[in-house]
Amino acid sequence: MNSFNALLRLALPIVVVQVGIMFMGVIDTIMVGHLSARALAAVALGNLYFWACGIFGMGVIMALDPVIAQAVGANDDVAVARGFQRGLLLAVLLTIPISIVLLFPDPVLRTFGQADDVVPLAVSYVLYCIPGVLPFLGFTVLRQTLQAMGLVRPIVLTMIAANAANILLNWMLIFGKLGAPALGVAGAAWATTAARWLMVIILFAIAWRPLRPYLLPLRTDTFAAAPVGRMLALGAPIGLQFQLEYGIFAVVGLLMGTIGTTPLAAHQVALNIASFTFMVPMGVAAAAAVLVGHAVGRGSATDARQAATAALVTGVGFMALMAIVLLVAPGLIARVYTTDATVVGIALVLIPLAGFFQVFDGMQVVCGGILRGLGDTHSPLIANIVGFWVLGLPLGVWLGLRRDWGPAGLWWGLVAGLAVVGIALLIRVQVRMKRTLKRVQIDHERGQESGVRSQEAGVSG
Q: Where are the domains of the chain?
Protein backbone atom coordinates (compact mmCIF):
# COMPACT_ATOMS: atom_id res chain seq x y z
CA MET A 1 0.00 0.00 0.00
CA ASN A 2 2.90 2.33 0.71
CA SER A 3 4.10 1.85 -2.86
CA PHE A 4 0.72 2.95 -4.24
CA ASN A 5 0.66 5.98 -1.92
CA ALA A 6 4.15 7.04 -2.94
CA LEU A 7 3.29 6.55 -6.60
CA LEU A 8 0.09 8.59 -6.45
CA ARG A 9 1.71 11.43 -4.48
CA LEU A 10 4.26 11.81 -7.25
CA ALA A 11 2.17 10.82 -10.28
CA LEU A 12 -0.88 13.05 -9.72
CA PRO A 13 1.05 16.36 -9.86
CA ILE A 14 2.97 15.09 -12.89
CA VAL A 15 -0.34 14.31 -14.61
CA VAL A 16 -1.47 17.88 -13.86
CA VAL A 17 1.72 19.16 -15.49
CA GLN A 18 1.23 16.93 -18.55
CA VAL A 19 -2.36 18.14 -18.94
CA GLY A 20 -1.12 21.72 -18.51
CA ILE A 21 1.37 21.29 -21.34
CA MET A 22 -1.35 19.81 -23.56
CA PHE A 23 -3.77 22.57 -22.54
CA MET A 24 -1.35 25.24 -23.81
CA GLY A 25 -1.58 23.70 -27.27
CA VAL A 26 -5.37 23.46 -27.04
CA ILE A 27 -5.64 27.16 -26.13
CA ASP A 28 -3.34 28.12 -29.02
CA THR A 29 -5.53 26.14 -31.42
CA ILE A 30 -8.80 27.56 -30.12
CA MET A 31 -7.63 31.19 -30.21
CA VAL A 32 -6.03 30.98 -33.66
CA GLY A 33 -9.14 29.19 -34.89
CA HIS A 34 -11.03 32.45 -34.44
CA LEU A 35 -8.89 34.06 -37.15
CA SER A 36 -9.51 31.67 -40.07
CA ALA A 37 -9.33 28.05 -41.14
CA ARG A 38 -6.10 28.92 -42.97
CA ALA A 39 -4.53 30.26 -39.78
CA LEU A 40 -5.65 27.19 -37.86
CA ALA A 41 -4.12 24.86 -40.45
CA ALA A 42 -0.89 26.86 -40.43
CA VAL A 43 -0.46 26.62 -36.66
CA ALA A 44 -1.29 22.89 -36.74
CA LEU A 45 1.38 22.33 -39.42
CA GLY A 46 3.87 24.56 -37.62
CA ASN A 47 3.41 22.69 -34.36
CA LEU A 48 3.71 19.36 -36.17
CA TYR A 49 7.04 20.41 -37.68
CA PHE A 50 8.34 21.90 -34.40
CA TRP A 51 7.62 18.75 -32.42
CA ALA A 52 9.00 16.51 -35.17
CA CYS A 53 12.29 18.41 -34.87
CA GLY A 54 12.33 18.95 -31.10
CA ILE A 55 11.04 15.70 -29.63
CA PHE A 56 14.39 13.93 -30.06
CA GLY A 57 16.12 16.53 -27.87
CA MET A 58 13.43 16.21 -25.21
CA GLY A 59 13.91 12.43 -25.22
CA VAL A 60 17.70 12.70 -24.87
CA ILE A 61 17.25 14.81 -21.74
CA MET A 62 15.11 12.01 -20.25
CA ALA A 63 18.47 10.34 -19.53
CA LEU A 64 18.33 12.44 -16.36
CA ASP A 65 15.63 10.08 -15.01
CA PRO A 66 17.95 7.17 -14.18
CA VAL A 67 21.06 9.28 -13.60
CA ILE A 68 19.57 11.70 -11.06
CA ALA A 69 16.88 9.45 -9.53
CA GLN A 70 19.41 6.70 -8.78
CA ALA A 71 21.87 9.28 -7.41
CA VAL A 72 19.15 10.70 -5.14
CA GLY A 73 18.34 7.19 -3.90
CA ALA A 74 22.04 6.65 -3.12
CA ASN A 75 22.34 10.07 -1.38
CA ASP A 76 25.08 10.92 -3.89
CA ASP A 77 24.87 14.72 -4.10
CA VAL A 78 27.93 14.96 -6.33
CA ALA A 79 26.30 12.71 -8.96
CA VAL A 80 23.08 14.77 -8.75
CA ALA A 81 25.06 17.98 -9.37
CA ARG A 82 26.94 16.44 -12.28
CA GLY A 83 23.74 15.11 -13.83
CA PHE A 84 21.90 18.42 -13.48
CA GLN A 85 24.74 20.52 -14.86
CA ARG A 86 25.35 18.15 -17.75
CA GLY A 87 21.63 18.16 -18.50
CA LEU A 88 21.76 21.95 -18.88
CA LEU A 89 24.85 21.60 -21.07
CA LEU A 90 23.07 19.05 -23.28
CA ALA A 91 20.11 21.43 -23.59
CA VAL A 92 22.44 24.12 -24.95
CA LEU A 93 24.23 21.72 -27.29
CA LEU A 94 21.01 20.17 -28.63
CA THR A 95 19.53 23.62 -29.26
CA ILE A 96 22.00 24.19 -32.10
CA PRO A 97 21.11 21.29 -34.47
CA ILE A 98 17.41 21.49 -33.64
CA SER A 99 17.35 25.22 -34.45
CA ILE A 100 19.20 24.61 -37.73
CA VAL A 101 16.64 21.99 -38.83
CA LEU A 102 13.81 24.36 -37.87
CA LEU A 103 15.19 26.95 -40.31
CA PHE A 104 14.01 24.91 -43.32
CA PRO A 105 10.31 24.02 -42.94
CA ASP A 106 9.30 25.31 -46.39
CA PRO A 107 10.77 22.54 -48.59
CA VAL A 108 9.68 19.83 -46.14
CA LEU A 109 6.07 21.00 -45.96
CA ARG A 110 5.87 21.43 -49.74
CA THR A 111 7.37 17.96 -50.28
CA PHE A 112 4.44 16.55 -48.30
CA GLY A 113 2.01 18.39 -50.55
CA GLN A 114 0.69 20.98 -48.13
CA ALA A 115 -1.49 23.81 -49.47
CA ASP A 116 0.37 26.73 -51.07
CA ASP A 117 -1.62 29.33 -49.18
CA VAL A 118 -0.97 27.65 -45.80
CA VAL A 119 2.77 26.93 -46.07
CA PRO A 120 4.02 30.57 -45.79
CA LEU A 121 2.06 31.09 -42.58
CA ALA A 122 3.25 27.77 -41.17
CA VAL A 123 6.85 28.68 -42.05
CA SER A 124 6.57 32.01 -40.21
CA TYR A 125 5.14 30.21 -37.18
CA VAL A 126 8.07 27.76 -37.09
CA LEU A 127 10.71 30.48 -37.53
CA TYR A 128 9.31 32.57 -34.67
CA CYS A 129 9.31 29.49 -32.44
CA ILE A 130 13.07 28.95 -32.86
CA PRO A 131 14.03 31.33 -30.00
CA GLY A 132 11.91 29.09 -27.77
CA VAL A 133 13.97 25.92 -28.40
CA LEU A 134 16.49 26.59 -25.61
CA PRO A 135 13.86 27.26 -22.90
CA PHE A 136 11.82 24.31 -24.18
CA LEU A 137 14.79 22.00 -23.54
CA GLY A 138 15.86 23.90 -20.41
CA PHE A 139 12.43 23.45 -18.85
CA THR A 140 12.67 19.73 -19.57
CA VAL A 141 15.99 19.58 -17.69
CA LEU A 142 14.51 21.40 -14.69
CA ARG A 143 11.36 19.28 -14.73
CA GLN A 144 13.18 15.94 -14.90
CA THR A 145 15.65 17.01 -12.20
CA LEU A 146 12.98 18.21 -9.79
CA GLN A 147 10.82 15.13 -10.44
CA ALA A 148 13.80 12.90 -9.70
CA MET A 149 14.25 14.79 -6.43
CA GLY A 150 10.56 14.29 -5.64
CA LEU A 151 9.85 18.05 -5.87
CA VAL A 152 6.83 18.45 -8.15
CA ARG A 153 4.96 21.33 -6.51
CA PRO A 154 7.19 24.01 -8.16
CA ILE A 155 6.50 22.46 -11.57
CA VAL A 156 2.72 22.50 -11.01
CA LEU A 157 2.80 26.16 -9.91
CA THR A 158 4.92 27.05 -12.93
CA MET A 159 2.53 25.31 -15.30
CA ILE A 160 -0.47 27.17 -13.86
CA ALA A 161 1.33 30.50 -14.25
CA ALA A 162 2.54 29.62 -17.76
CA ASN A 163 -0.98 28.74 -18.94
CA ALA A 164 -2.32 32.04 -17.61
CA ALA A 165 0.50 33.94 -19.33
CA ASN A 166 -0.03 31.99 -22.56
CA ILE A 167 -3.71 32.92 -22.69
CA LEU A 168 -2.93 36.61 -22.09
CA LEU A 169 -0.06 36.73 -24.58
CA ASN A 170 -2.09 34.95 -27.28
CA TRP A 171 -4.97 37.37 -26.79
CA MET A 172 -2.62 40.36 -27.02
CA LEU A 173 -0.39 39.27 -29.89
CA ILE A 174 -2.88 37.41 -32.09
CA PHE A 175 -5.67 40.01 -31.94
CA GLY A 176 -3.69 43.17 -31.07
CA LYS A 177 -5.02 43.89 -27.59
CA LEU A 178 -3.66 46.20 -24.86
CA GLY A 179 -1.61 48.15 -27.38
CA ALA A 180 0.16 45.13 -28.88
CA PRO A 181 0.28 44.69 -32.68
CA ALA A 182 -2.19 42.22 -34.23
CA LEU A 183 0.26 39.63 -35.55
CA GLY A 184 -2.11 36.72 -36.18
CA VAL A 185 -0.27 33.42 -36.66
CA ALA A 186 3.08 35.09 -35.96
CA GLY A 187 1.62 36.42 -32.72
CA ALA A 188 0.72 32.89 -31.65
CA ALA A 189 4.33 31.82 -32.27
CA TRP A 190 5.76 34.75 -30.31
CA ALA A 191 3.32 34.04 -27.46
CA THR A 192 4.46 30.40 -27.38
CA THR A 193 8.13 31.41 -27.37
CA ALA A 194 7.57 33.95 -24.59
CA ALA A 195 5.60 31.42 -22.54
CA ARG A 196 8.47 28.93 -22.83
CA TRP A 197 10.94 31.50 -21.54
CA LEU A 198 8.59 32.35 -18.70
CA MET A 199 8.32 28.67 -17.77
CA VAL A 200 12.08 28.42 -17.30
CA ILE A 201 12.38 31.71 -15.43
CA ILE A 202 9.45 31.02 -13.11
CA LEU A 203 10.54 27.45 -12.36
CA PHE A 204 14.12 28.56 -11.65
CA ALA A 205 12.80 31.28 -9.33
CA ILE A 206 10.41 29.01 -7.42
CA ALA A 207 12.85 26.08 -7.13
CA TRP A 208 16.06 28.09 -6.72
CA ARG A 209 16.65 27.09 -3.10
CA PRO A 210 16.72 23.28 -3.65
CA LEU A 211 18.47 23.62 -7.04
CA ARG A 212 21.20 26.06 -6.02
CA PRO A 213 23.51 23.53 -4.26
CA TYR A 214 23.51 21.42 -7.43
CA LEU A 215 24.15 24.33 -9.79
CA LEU A 216 26.71 26.33 -7.84
CA PRO A 217 29.62 26.07 -7.84
CA LEU A 218 29.86 25.05 -11.48
CA ARG A 219 31.88 21.84 -11.64
CA THR A 220 34.78 21.74 -14.09
CA ASP A 221 34.14 18.04 -14.80
CA THR A 222 30.69 18.97 -16.11
CA PHE A 223 32.33 19.79 -19.44
CA ALA A 224 34.41 16.59 -19.69
CA ALA A 225 33.74 15.17 -23.14
CA ALA A 226 33.63 11.47 -22.25
CA PRO A 227 30.91 11.66 -19.53
CA VAL A 228 28.84 14.06 -21.64
CA GLY A 229 29.14 11.58 -24.50
CA ARG A 230 27.96 8.77 -22.23
CA MET A 231 24.99 10.87 -21.12
CA LEU A 232 24.16 11.40 -24.78
CA ALA A 233 24.51 7.66 -25.45
CA LEU A 234 22.14 6.91 -22.57
CA GLY A 235 19.55 9.44 -23.76
CA ALA A 236 19.78 9.00 -27.54
CA PRO A 237 17.74 5.75 -27.58
CA ILE A 238 14.97 7.54 -25.67
CA GLY A 239 15.07 10.40 -28.18
CA LEU A 240 14.94 7.98 -31.11
CA GLN A 241 12.08 6.06 -29.48
CA PHE A 242 10.09 9.30 -29.07
CA GLN A 243 10.92 10.32 -32.63
CA LEU A 244 9.78 7.00 -34.08
CA GLU A 245 6.64 6.87 -31.96
CA TYR A 246 5.73 10.41 -32.99
CA GLY A 247 6.57 9.48 -36.57
CA ILE A 248 4.27 6.46 -36.71
CA PHE A 249 1.23 8.56 -35.82
CA ALA A 250 2.27 11.24 -38.31
CA VAL A 251 2.58 8.62 -41.06
CA VAL A 252 -0.79 7.07 -40.21
CA GLY A 253 -2.31 10.56 -40.31
CA LEU A 254 -0.84 11.17 -43.75
CA LEU A 255 -2.11 7.78 -44.97
CA MET A 256 -5.53 8.55 -43.53
CA GLY A 257 -5.52 11.76 -45.55
CA THR A 258 -5.04 9.74 -48.75
CA ILE A 259 -8.33 7.96 -48.01
CA GLY A 260 -10.18 11.26 -47.60
CA THR A 261 -10.76 14.39 -45.53
CA THR A 262 -13.65 12.88 -43.57
CA PRO A 263 -11.67 9.80 -42.45
CA LEU A 264 -8.82 12.12 -41.44
CA ALA A 265 -11.22 14.19 -39.33
CA ALA A 266 -12.57 11.04 -37.62
CA HIS A 267 -9.03 9.84 -37.07
CA GLN A 268 -8.18 13.15 -35.35
CA VAL A 269 -11.22 12.81 -33.06
CA ALA A 270 -10.25 9.29 -31.95
CA LEU A 271 -6.58 10.21 -31.61
CA ASN A 272 -7.37 13.32 -29.56
CA ILE A 273 -9.39 11.24 -27.11
CA ALA A 274 -6.57 8.70 -26.82
CA SER A 275 -3.99 11.47 -26.37
CA PHE A 276 -5.95 13.07 -23.55
CA THR A 277 -6.38 9.86 -21.53
CA PHE A 278 -2.72 9.00 -22.25
CA MET A 279 -1.65 11.85 -19.95
CA VAL A 280 -2.47 9.71 -16.89
CA PRO A 281 -0.28 6.66 -17.64
CA MET A 282 2.38 9.05 -18.94
CA GLY A 283 2.43 10.72 -15.52
CA VAL A 284 2.47 7.31 -13.84
CA ALA A 285 5.41 6.30 -16.05
CA ALA A 286 7.37 9.41 -15.03
CA ALA A 287 6.70 8.66 -11.36
CA ALA A 288 7.69 5.01 -11.88
CA ALA A 289 11.03 6.07 -13.42
CA VAL A 290 11.75 8.16 -10.32
CA LEU A 291 10.64 5.63 -7.69
CA VAL A 292 12.36 2.68 -9.38
CA GLY A 293 15.49 4.81 -9.79
CA HIS A 294 15.41 5.74 -6.09
CA ALA A 295 15.08 2.06 -5.14
CA VAL A 296 18.01 1.03 -7.34
CA GLY A 297 20.11 3.87 -5.92
CA ARG A 298 19.54 2.81 -2.32
CA GLY A 299 20.03 -0.88 -3.13
CA SER A 300 16.50 -2.21 -2.60
CA ALA A 301 15.31 -4.57 -5.30
CA THR A 302 12.15 -5.22 -3.28
CA ASP A 303 11.20 -1.54 -3.37
CA ALA A 304 11.94 -1.44 -7.10
CA ARG A 305 9.60 -4.37 -7.75
CA GLN A 306 6.87 -2.89 -5.56
CA ALA A 307 7.10 0.47 -7.32
CA ALA A 308 6.95 -1.25 -10.72
CA THR A 309 3.92 -3.31 -9.70
CA ALA A 310 2.08 -0.27 -8.32
CA ALA A 311 2.79 1.66 -11.53
CA LEU A 312 1.53 -1.12 -13.80
CA VAL A 313 -1.63 -1.71 -11.78
CA THR A 314 -2.39 2.04 -11.68
CA GLY A 315 -1.50 2.94 -15.26
CA VAL A 316 -2.94 -0.10 -17.04
CA GLY A 317 -5.94 -0.23 -14.67
CA PHE A 318 -6.86 3.37 -15.47
CA MET A 319 -6.59 2.74 -19.21
CA ALA A 320 -8.73 -0.39 -18.90
CA LEU A 321 -11.46 1.73 -17.30
CA MET A 322 -11.14 4.28 -20.10
CA ALA A 323 -11.36 1.44 -22.64
CA ILE A 324 -14.71 0.39 -21.17
CA VAL A 325 -16.00 3.97 -21.49
CA LEU A 326 -14.89 4.16 -25.14
CA LEU A 327 -16.43 0.78 -25.94
CA VAL A 328 -19.75 1.60 -24.24
CA ALA A 329 -20.34 5.21 -25.35
CA PRO A 330 -18.50 5.94 -28.63
CA GLY A 331 -21.40 7.92 -30.13
CA LEU A 332 -21.80 10.19 -27.13
CA ILE A 333 -18.06 10.95 -27.14
CA ALA A 334 -17.88 11.52 -30.91
CA ARG A 335 -20.74 14.05 -30.84
CA VAL A 336 -18.82 16.17 -28.33
CA TYR A 337 -16.31 16.82 -31.12
CA THR A 338 -18.52 17.15 -34.18
CA THR A 339 -22.08 17.16 -35.45
CA ASP A 340 -21.04 15.99 -38.93
CA ALA A 341 -22.92 12.70 -39.37
CA THR A 342 -20.33 11.22 -41.75
CA VAL A 343 -17.41 12.00 -39.41
CA VAL A 344 -19.40 10.60 -36.46
CA GLY A 345 -20.13 7.43 -38.44
CA ILE A 346 -16.41 6.71 -38.99
CA ALA A 347 -15.55 7.79 -35.45
CA LEU A 348 -18.03 5.20 -34.15
CA VAL A 349 -15.74 2.57 -35.67
CA LEU A 350 -12.44 4.11 -34.57
CA ILE A 351 -13.29 5.07 -30.97
CA PRO A 352 -13.91 1.44 -29.83
CA LEU A 353 -10.58 0.54 -31.47
CA ALA A 354 -9.07 3.35 -29.41
CA GLY A 355 -10.41 1.42 -26.41
CA PHE A 356 -8.24 -1.60 -27.24
CA PHE A 357 -5.46 0.81 -28.14
CA GLN A 358 -5.68 2.39 -24.64
CA VAL A 359 -4.78 -0.70 -22.64
CA PHE A 360 -1.62 -1.52 -24.59
CA ASP A 361 -0.64 2.16 -24.81
CA GLY A 362 -0.81 2.42 -21.01
CA MET A 363 1.19 -0.81 -20.67
CA GLN A 364 3.98 0.27 -23.01
CA VAL A 365 4.47 3.75 -21.57
CA VAL A 366 4.50 2.56 -17.94
CA CYS A 367 6.91 -0.26 -18.76
CA GLY A 368 9.08 2.29 -20.56
CA GLY A 369 9.16 4.44 -17.43
CA ILE A 370 10.11 1.46 -15.24
CA LEU A 371 12.92 0.47 -17.61
CA ARG A 372 14.12 4.08 -17.73
CA GLY A 373 14.38 4.04 -13.94
CA LEU A 374 16.52 0.89 -14.22
CA GLY A 375 18.75 2.59 -16.79
CA ASP A 376 17.54 0.40 -19.69
CA THR A 377 16.93 2.86 -22.52
CA HIS A 378 17.57 0.51 -25.46
CA SER A 379 14.77 -2.05 -24.97
CA PRO A 380 11.89 0.43 -25.54
CA LEU A 381 13.58 1.62 -28.74
CA ILE A 382 13.97 -1.92 -30.10
CA ALA A 383 10.38 -2.82 -29.17
CA ASN A 384 9.15 0.38 -30.85
CA ILE A 385 10.97 -0.37 -34.11
CA VAL A 386 9.73 -3.96 -34.27
CA GLY A 387 6.19 -3.36 -33.02
CA PHE A 388 5.33 -0.20 -34.94
CA TRP A 389 7.53 -0.10 -38.01
CA VAL A 390 8.19 -3.78 -38.79
CA LEU A 391 4.76 -5.18 -37.85
CA GLY A 392 2.12 -2.52 -37.09
CA LEU A 393 2.54 -0.12 -40.02
CA PRO A 394 2.78 -2.78 -42.76
CA LEU A 395 -0.26 -4.57 -41.28
CA GLY A 396 -2.22 -1.31 -41.16
CA VAL A 397 -1.32 -0.47 -44.76
CA TRP A 398 -2.26 -3.98 -45.91
CA LEU A 399 -5.61 -3.98 -44.07
CA GLY A 400 -6.52 -0.35 -44.69
CA LEU A 401 -5.33 0.20 -48.24
CA ARG A 402 -4.90 -3.27 -49.78
CA ARG A 403 -7.81 -5.10 -48.18
CA ASP A 404 -10.04 -2.02 -48.31
CA TRP A 405 -10.77 -1.92 -44.58
CA GLY A 406 -10.19 1.82 -44.79
CA PRO A 407 -9.62 3.84 -41.59
CA ALA A 408 -10.37 0.83 -39.38
CA GLY A 409 -7.61 -1.15 -41.08
CA LEU A 410 -5.01 1.52 -40.37
CA TRP A 411 -6.13 1.62 -36.74
CA TRP A 412 -5.98 -2.16 -36.39
CA GLY A 413 -2.34 -1.81 -37.43
CA LEU A 414 -1.80 0.69 -34.59
CA VAL A 415 -3.54 -1.62 -32.12
CA ALA A 416 -1.42 -4.58 -33.20
CA GLY A 417 1.78 -2.54 -33.04
CA LEU A 418 0.99 -1.25 -29.56
CA ALA A 419 0.09 -4.76 -28.39
CA VAL A 420 3.47 -6.07 -29.52
CA VAL A 421 5.34 -3.16 -27.92
CA GLY A 422 3.37 -3.35 -24.66
CA ILE A 423 3.69 -7.12 -24.21
CA ALA A 424 7.37 -7.14 -25.20
CA LEU A 425 8.21 -4.42 -22.68
CA LEU A 426 6.17 -6.11 -19.95
CA ILE A 427 8.22 -9.27 -20.47
CA ARG A 428 11.40 -7.18 -20.44
CA VAL A 429 10.42 -5.59 -17.11
CA GLN A 430 9.81 -9.03 -15.59
CA VAL A 431 13.18 -10.29 -16.84
CA ARG A 432 15.06 -7.22 -15.58
CA MET A 433 13.43 -7.37 -12.15
CA LYS A 434 14.70 -10.95 -11.70
CA ARG A 435 18.28 -9.90 -12.34
CA THR A 436 20.74 -8.18 -10.03
CA LEU A 437 19.85 -4.50 -10.28
CA LYS A 438 22.73 -2.15 -10.99
CA ARG A 439 23.10 1.55 -10.50
CA VAL A 440 24.21 3.41 -13.60
CA GLN A 441 26.71 6.20 -13.11
CA ILE A 442 28.39 8.29 -15.72
CA ASP A 443 31.68 8.88 -13.84
CA HIS A 444 34.26 6.78 -12.07
CA GLU A 445 35.60 8.02 -8.77
CA ARG A 446 39.10 8.13 -7.34
CA GLY A 447 40.90 7.83 -10.64
CA GLN A 448 39.31 4.57 -11.69
CA GLU A 449 39.30 3.65 -15.35
CA SER A 450 36.77 5.72 -17.27
CA GLY A 451 33.49 4.23 -18.35
CA VAL A 452 29.97 3.80 -17.06
CA ARG A 453 30.17 2.35 -13.56
CA SER A 454 27.46 0.10 -12.18
CA GLN A 455 26.98 -0.59 -8.51
CA GLU A 456 25.06 -3.73 -7.63
CA ALA A 457 21.85 -3.06 -5.79
CA GLY A 458 21.22 -6.72 -5.00
CA VAL A 459 18.15 -8.87 -5.56
CA SER A 460 17.18 -9.52 -1.98
CA GLY A 461 14.92 -7.21 -0.06
A: 1-223, 231-441
